[in-house]
Amino acid sequence: MNVLVINCGSSSLKYQLMNMQEETLLAKGLVERIGIEGSVLKHEKEGREKEVILVPMKNHKDALNEVLKALVDENYGAVKSLDEIDAVGHRVVHAGEKYSGSVLITEDVKAALEECIDLAPLHNPPNIMGIEAIQELIPSVPNVGVFDTAFHQTMPPQAYIYPIPYEYYEKYKVRRYGFHGTSHRYVAERAADMMGKPISELKLISCHLGNGASVTAIKNGISVATSMGFTPLEGLIMGTRCGDIDPAIITFLMEKENLDIEGINNVLNKKSGVLGISGVSSDFRDIENAAKDGNKRAALALETFDDRVRQYIAAYAAEMGGVDAVIFTAGLGENSISNRADICKNLEFMGLKVSDERNNVRGKEAFINSDDSKVKVLVIPTNEELMIARDTVEIVNSL
């Protein structure tokens, strides 16, 4: 079975086409500047150099039409015809409380996603546009929705409820939802495989650390706590997002800086995080270089980020009554040797020790704990697309 995985953003679109018999990548690509002058498709067939295709694309239907044309192109396509695409898996950010797993997309599912637009106004509309475009362009192919929030629907009420009037949960579904669920689920399953133990017997802490970052406690294979909340703004300090702060800061700054709702949202989502502290960049590589050159604010940004991750790891170990393994994944988690070392250095009281030699690794699966560490520490590159494709195959095969 060949599965096309699609991830639609507001003006971009990522895709991968995979042969799921062997779980091999056939082609992948990225469309940028949808609806903006200078639209471009960067397509890469496995084993060939990247093709850069400049063509106007006014909406997601245009973008997906160009993607499908690239996939069947006689020179750089991956299949001979669209009939060789057996199913499409869509990454969808928010399903609210509607779904605790991936589902076949029906009109009822699309209506549920429409209802969740208030919860993810930047993400769900392009996700829905991608679904509708595929349904129009290749109507005979089944579509599956895989939700960022679904994995966290197993959290108990005390982990997701907020200490505000309960009526706001009843009326507006204001609660912790959590995100990065597909990534956390993938690395947790890989960790269990690498450790040679059933996931149902493990207590894992997954650290998805990138420009967006979250930590999840996974007990016996299910999410029991996660750092992102009602929106992806809560939790860890991130590239440009503030993470956990005193809520009173918001009204204080609105008054002092004469900010409206849009203005304060812009500050919290786009001007804060390590960018806000360092004044250098939202890219951790830039901040690390600045810190090495003696920039004290850059060093403070890194120390503050590492400290927050460490706090969540310790808290989630307490939440689960122990921990068998800590997992680092995503861009920073997979590649930053220094961040991993700094995060783990004060966790020896938990029996967690990192080997400097083993930690000298980037972008590949590895155990980085020392031999005398009671807690395993793993680096696992995430693969959300493969997880989406696997779910798609499972659902389509059950029809």
Q: What's the architecture of the largest domain in CATH terms?
A: 2-Layer Sandwich
- Rg, nearest Å: 21 Å
Instruction: Report the end-to-end length measured between terminal Cα atoms.
Output: 14 Å
The name CATH uses for the topology of the largest domain is: Nucleotidyltransferase, domain 5
User: How many strands in all?
Assistant: 14
Provide the CATH top-level class of the largest domain.
Alpha Beta
Number of domains: 2
Give a short overview.
The record marks 180, 241 as: Transition state stabilizer. The protein has 2 domains: 2-147, ATPase, nucleotide binding domain (Nucleotidyltransferase, domain 5); 197-384, ATPase, nucleotide binding domain (Nucleotidyltransferase, domain 5), CATH 3.30.420.
Give structural attributes.
2 domains, eight-stranded mixed beta sheet, single chain, alpha/beta, 14 strands, six-stranded mixed beta sheet, 19% strand, Nucleotidyltransferase, domain 5, 399 residues, 14 helices
What do these coordinates show?
Its EC number is 2.7.2.1. It comes from Acidaminobacter hydrogenoformans DSM 2784. This protein is α/β, with parallel strands linked by helices. The chain has 2 domains: 2-147, Nucleotidyltransferase, domain 5 (2-Layer Sandwich); 197-384, 2-Layer Sandwich (Nucleotidyltransferase, domain 5). 37% of the residues lie in helices and 19% in strands. The chain is built from 14 helices and 14 strands. The protein has an 8-stranded mixed sheet with strand order 5-4-3-2-1-6-8-7, with helices on both faces. α1 packs across α3. The chain is globular, with a radius of gyration of 21 Å. The mean pLDDT is 95.
